Fold each of these.
Amino acid sequence: MSCIQQFFLGLLLLTATTTVVSSFHLPKTASFQVRNNRHAANPRRSTTSLQLGEMEVLEVDVAIIGGGPAGCTCALYTSRADLNTIILDKNPASGALAITSHIANYPGVDRTMSGTELLTQMREQAVQYGTRYEKAQVFMIDVKEEETGDSVYTKCVYTPDYTIKARALVLATGAMGRVGKPFPGEKEFLGQGVSYCATCDGAFYRDSEVAVYGSSTEAIEEAMFLTKFASTVHWVVPTDIEKELQGGMDIEKNKIMDHDEAMQLMSCPNVKLWTKTKLVEVIGDMSGVTGVRVQHHTSDSEEVIPVEGAFIYGNGGGSKPITDFCQSKVELDENGGVIVDENMMTNVSGVYAVGDIRNTDYKQVVVAASDGCIAAMAVEKFLNNRKMIKVDWIHR
């Protein structure tokens, strides 16, 4: 099945309804606001109908996937260069910087500042110069004209709610993917019931029982998404999460878990919590996953939860570059990092990668920001067919 066929199948299952947007340009005085798939402005728009419904398409100069320091810095520079820029950020609270309690080595920043505070300031600054910020999960990209069928907007970014068409694409999703030894059965049933992306695969489990393992913010948000489709979401967590949420533990120290979202998830009628329970094995047969084997920490016996889907998220994330959505569209090194040149461009013209997704040894905020700056200047040169880098832009 081709990427386009997979995409429209996803649309059919998710019954997405959207509008075609020709372009947008935010006022330079726009104030920052985290939006959950809502428009920042009221752009000029025209409407077209597709056979599967209506699909919203945003046309921009630069699409940036990831809202960490690399992505925000890149957006700041491209927006200052009067390039229509959008950031697509899966979760502003779960990146490496966001879960850092204090920043002591970023130049000019008070050492008591938290990672979240610094990231918020970076994001606000980019938005003030015209960047549009959207909270959305990307599940697929197309990066060449022969894939998109468009000679101008040669890059396409697909989310469950809309498609972004861009002239240049920047990958800035970081490196907090799952690493380490997989659970028994995890690799065997990957793609046959085991998934790491509820937004991508959730609609396939309508009226079915699924299990979500992990207590990170990512796991919570993915489980919440699954409640729209699954008859029962079995939330399996290895910690005493109820005690944490009731204030028995210092929740502020656990930056990887969002307290309010966890409470909201637990209040859903089709969620069953398995607290202090570890995942032992994913089991199944020729048809795919049939259950997960778990063990409560107070018991020597194991129990099988009958499910058709197992969504596994590492507790606290990891350090693997997040490139699943790329689907081999760009070259990776042997450790999973995106390969770039000195201008942060990948092997695909007009596609750049910045920050920890490159999997360098120098995983520092200042390095990620530097990557974003370099990529932005390279993008401006690329889109305007310049021979030389334009170091700065006069911006009033």
Amino acid sequence: YPLCALAVSALDLGCHSVCRITFRVLKEIVSGLKYINLVYKTGIRVSKAEEMLGSYAASPNVYNWASEKEETPSGFLARGVYKAKSKFIDDDKHEHLAFEYQLEIKKDWD
């Protein structure tokens, strides 16, 4: 499975974000594909999101998926750097994609 790391992105307090993925299924059916996102601040897990995407048949067509809209925390204590780990797994616990990224939540844009 591909593993990628994304650079730090800065977000404003209380803004909305969406994760979008475009993919193909090449060989066998993918049954029970699930998206898992774990978010950490200073090494402590502050959020865990799981979303069932469904099953997908092998096809030359491209599939598109977008997560539900999420709002970043707001307030003085919410500011700082967050690290996240995301992965897509199926019913057989096969990891199809895993990636890590960082987000910085801040009040002012420089």
